[in-house]
Amino acid sequence: MRSRGEGRAAALMLSPTFLVLALVVLYPLLSALRESFYDSGQRLDADGFVVEGEWFAGLANYAGVTGERFLNAAANTTLFTVVTVAVEVVLGVAMALVMRRALRGRAFLRAGILVPWAVPTAVAGLMWKWIFQADGVANALLGTEILWTADGPWAKLAVVVADVWKTAPFVGLLVLAGLQIIPADVYEAARVDGAARWQTFWRITLPLVRPALLVAVLFRLMDALRVFDLPYVLVGPRKQSVETLSGLIWDEATRVHYGPASAYGTALFLYIAVIAFAFVKLLGADLLSDVRQRKEARNVA
User: Fold this and answer.
1) CA–CA distance, 93 with 70 (Å, rounded to integer)
2) Most confident of 1-5, 149-153, 193-197, 227-231
3) How confident is residue 254, by pLDDT bands cut at 50, 70 and 90?
4) Are 61 and 262 in contact (CB under 8 A)?
5) What pLDDT does 53 receive?
6) Percent of the chain clearing pLDDT 70 (strictly above)
């Protein structure tokens, strides 16, 4: 059992970390929450004079949460998250299975697959904007004249393709880490028992790689829900078909509408928190199972 002195020493050593987290995480969150209840600028007071400053606005800034533009941005964000994460999981698992195989040039293959993930998002957006321009590579290969980067459904598809190209290797990398800790004896036993390849995948590989896969999906969900840079660079700002919640918040903030921007930011934070909680609780993503098992083993000892 830990002594009181050990607990105080641990708290003292962790205090710098807590202080940094309070400054870079807690303070901005509380400031945004406070700003969401205030408005600023010029207004007429009770005597008809123009006054400038900041005043309490109550829930007025949250009225836009039910507006058409916010709901459209929320729908775009949700659609983008569901589609991209689903496709990236399938491709990421396939990449991990290929990268795990002992074949000639495996190191070169791994490096090649991970290159898109290493490319900065702004650079990737510019590259795909060049590919999807009217006289670009995409139209040349398909023999079409589609305006991919104009506002519309083709713009949604262009953003999804670019994001999947860039981020699927990240999922593959995390899944590969999970695959490499599966004992080879398990596969050898399955082979001796005459299990087919698809049976080995569904009954051995997928269950054993599930913890790593769930971590990858959770990371991607958090990242996709706050996407901003790729639609902004590839298609442009204030495009109805690809405007996300982060894009809407950025647009309001750049027009000095700090109250609505803070209210939308608070709503996005709650949205992400609810999705993360539901993912961990309802889908069984027990991310702290190893820690709990070690604690239980220590208590038994």
Assistant:
1) 34
2) 227-231
3) very high
4) yes
5) 76
6) 91
Cα 297 from Cα 263, distance rounded (Å)? 45
Residue 100, token pair as written in the block: 């795990």
What single string gives the DSSP state of each residue in 13-78? HHHHHHHHHIIIIIHHHHHHHHHTTEEEEEEE-TTS-EEEEEEE-TTGGGGGGGSHHHHHHHHHHH
Distance CA 234, CA 245 (A): 16
| 60 touches 294 (CB < 8 A) | no
DSSP labels for 115-167?
A: HHHHS-HHHHHHHHHHHTSTTSHHHHHHT----TTSSSHHHHHHHHHHHHHHH
What is the SS3 assignment for 237? coil
Query: 40 — phi, psi (to 5°)?
Result: -145, 165
Among all chains, which residue has been given the structure tokens 């533009």? Answer: 69
Average pLDDT estimate for 154-166: 95
Report how far Cα 99 is from the mean position of its chain's Cα atoms: 24
Compute the distance between CA of residue 10 and CA of residue 2 in angstroms, rounded to an integer: 11
Overall pTM > 0.85: no
